């Protein structure tokens, strides 16, 4: 990252900055509209010195307020899914319920995709996917561009997943957690937001890895 903050970033500045880099903007600094478009096109992340992300970086952190989420499970997580759907709706959240509702066998990648794609399209702020251990669903969900899925077995991991890693999909293992344990994890996940600029800057590097594809 450039150690000298910009007071203003113009289009001329944006065109000579190396693509894919991260630069700092002074606390009261300004990015011109044309420069903002060029920065986005060149995948340049701008972080303000007051800790507030600017430009393309502002879109990397998951929404701080979750109002609508997708919850899905395979056949091993039906009971847990039902508990979580009821819990979330009782708190005023809009829930898209996907995956099986009985013991019909289904492959976890299909359910993970059904949860991850609406989140990636912006139709929901977050997703929860459940299978036996949560590991397979996390792997599958992370194959969808724009998704950062984390398997969390404790509230502490859920907090780190959101605050440090910007996770937008939570994967749970139905065979590893009691309903009360799962609720505590979900509550932490939904109530934690990502705010620190240094963490968002790291997401920019994650995004570049995703875009490189190798």
Could you walk me through the main structural features you see in this protein, from its secondary elements to its overall organization?
The chain is built from eight helices and nine strands. The radius of gyration is 19 Å and the shape is elongated. The two termini are 23 Å apart. Helix 6 runs parallel beside helix 7 (179-191). It has a five-stranded parallel beta sheet, with helices on both faces. By secondary structure, it is an alpha/beta fold. It has two domains: 6-61 and 196-212, no CATH class; 68-191, Ribose 5-phosphate Isomerase B, Chain: A (3-Layer(aba) Sandwich).
Give short descriptive properties of this protein.
2 domains, 214 residues, 8 helices, Ribose 5-phosphate Isomerase B, Chain: A, five-stranded parallel sheet, single chain, alpha/beta, four-stranded mixed sheet, 40% helix
Quick structural summary:
The protein has 214 residues and is an alpha/beta fold. The chain is 40% helix and 21% strand.
List strands and helices in order, with pairings.
Layout: E1 6-9, H1 11-16, E2 22-31, H2 33-41, E3 45-48, E4 53-54, E5 68-73, H3 78-90, E6 94-99, H4 108-120, E7 126-131, H5 135-141, E8 149-151, H6 155-163, E9 169-173, H7 179-191, H8 197-212
């Amino acid at each position: 990252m450039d150690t000298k903050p910009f007071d203003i970033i113009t289009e001329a500045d944006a065109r000579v900055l190396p693509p894919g880099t991260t630069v700092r903007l002074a606390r009261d600094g300004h990015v011109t509209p044309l420069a903002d478009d060029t920065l986005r096109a060149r995948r340049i992340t701008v972080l303000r010195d007051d800790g507030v992300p600017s430009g393309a970086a502002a879109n990397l952190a998951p929404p701080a307020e979750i109002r609508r989420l997708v919850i899905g499970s395979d056949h091993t997580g039906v009971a847990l899914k039902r508990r979580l759907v009821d819990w979330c709706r009782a708190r005023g959240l809009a829930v898209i319920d996907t995956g099986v509702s009985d013991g019909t066998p289904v492959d976890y990648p299909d359910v993970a995709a059904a949860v991850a794609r609406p989140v990636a399209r912006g139709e929901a702020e977050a997703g929860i996917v459940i299978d036996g251990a949560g590991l397979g669903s996390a792997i599958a969900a992370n194959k969808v561009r724009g998704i950062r899925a984390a398997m969390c077995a404790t509230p502490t991991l859920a907090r780190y997943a959101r605050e440090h890693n910007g996770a937008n999909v939570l994967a749970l293992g139905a065979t590893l957690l009691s309903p009360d344990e799962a609720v505590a994890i979900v509550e932490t996940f939904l109530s934690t937001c990502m705010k620190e600029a240094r963490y968002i800057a790291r997401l920019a590097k994650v995004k570049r890895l995703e875009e490189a594809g190798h």
